[in-house]
Write a structure and sequence with these properties.
Helix content is 37%, strand content 22%. The protein has a domain of 46 residues. It is α+β, with helices and mostly antiparallel strands. α1 crosses α2.
Protein backbone atom coordinates (compact mmCIF):
# COMPACT_ATOMS: atom_id res chain seq x y z
CA UNK A 1 0.00 0.00 0.00
CA UNK A 2 1.11 3.54 -0.72
CA UNK A 3 0.91 6.38 1.80
CA UNK A 4 -2.39 7.38 0.13
CA UNK A 5 -3.92 4.02 1.08
CA UNK A 6 -3.97 2.74 -2.51
CA UNK A 7 -2.29 -0.41 -3.81
CA UNK A 8 1.13 0.20 -5.38
CA UNK A 9 -0.35 -0.61 -8.77
CA UNK A 10 -3.73 1.07 -9.14
CA UNK A 11 -5.69 1.11 -12.39
CA UNK A 12 -7.44 4.48 -12.08
CA UNK A 13 -9.37 4.29 -15.40
CA UNK A 14 -10.78 0.89 -14.42
CA UNK A 15 -11.89 2.20 -11.03
CA UNK A 16 -13.18 5.63 -12.02
CA UNK A 17 -14.60 4.93 -15.50
CA UNK A 18 -14.71 1.30 -16.66
CA UNK A 19 -16.62 -0.03 -13.65
CA UNK A 20 -19.43 2.48 -14.23
CA UNK A 21 -19.75 1.29 -17.84
CA UNK A 22 -19.72 -2.37 -16.69
CA UNK A 23 -22.39 -1.61 -14.09
CA UNK A 24 -24.72 -0.01 -16.65
CA UNK A 25 -24.04 3.68 -16.00
CA UNK A 26 -22.32 4.45 -19.33
CA UNK A 27 -24.97 7.00 -20.29
CA UNK A 28 -24.53 9.06 -17.10
CA UNK A 29 -22.55 12.30 -17.07
CA UNK A 30 -19.02 11.99 -15.72
CA UNK A 31 -17.38 15.31 -16.67
CA UNK A 32 -18.83 18.78 -17.13
CA UNK A 33 -17.01 21.41 -19.18
CA UNK A 34 -17.91 24.94 -20.26
CA UNK A 35 -18.52 23.49 -23.73
CA UNK A 36 -20.72 20.61 -22.59
CA UNK A 37 -20.73 17.26 -20.83
CA UNK A 38 -19.07 13.91 -21.30
CA UNK A 39 -20.56 10.53 -20.44
CA UNK A 40 -18.80 7.54 -18.90
CA UNK A 41 -19.06 5.52 -22.13
CA UNK A 42 -17.50 8.30 -24.23
CA UNK A 43 -14.58 8.62 -21.81
CA UNK A 44 -14.20 4.83 -21.72
CA UNK A 45 -14.13 4.50 -25.53
CA UNK A 46 -11.77 7.46 -25.96
CA UNK A 47 -9.32 6.19 -23.36
CA UNK A 48 -9.45 2.66 -24.75
CA UNK A 49 -8.62 3.94 -28.24
CA UNK A 50 -5.64 5.98 -26.99
CA UNK A 51 -4.39 3.11 -24.81
CA UNK A 52 -4.48 0.68 -27.72
CA UNK A 53 -2.58 3.14 -29.89
CA UNK A 54 0.12 3.57 -27.25
CA UNK A 55 -0.63 7.27 -26.85
CA UNK A 56 -1.40 7.21 -23.12
CA UNK A 57 1.34 7.74 -20.56
CA UNK A 58 1.88 8.89 -16.99
CA UNK A 59 3.30 12.39 -16.70
CA UNK A 60 6.13 13.19 -14.25
CA UNK A 61 3.61 14.39 -11.65
CA UNK A 62 1.75 11.05 -11.87
CA UNK A 63 -1.23 12.23 -13.93
CA UNK A 64 -2.50 10.29 -16.94
CA UNK A 65 -1.83 12.06 -20.20
CA UNK A 66 -2.61 11.24 -23.79
CA UNK A 67 -2.46 12.54 -27.32
Amino acid sequence: MSSAGLPRQFNAPAHFVDRHVREGRGDRTTLVFDEGRSRFLAVHVGHDRRAQSGRVWVSPNGALAGA
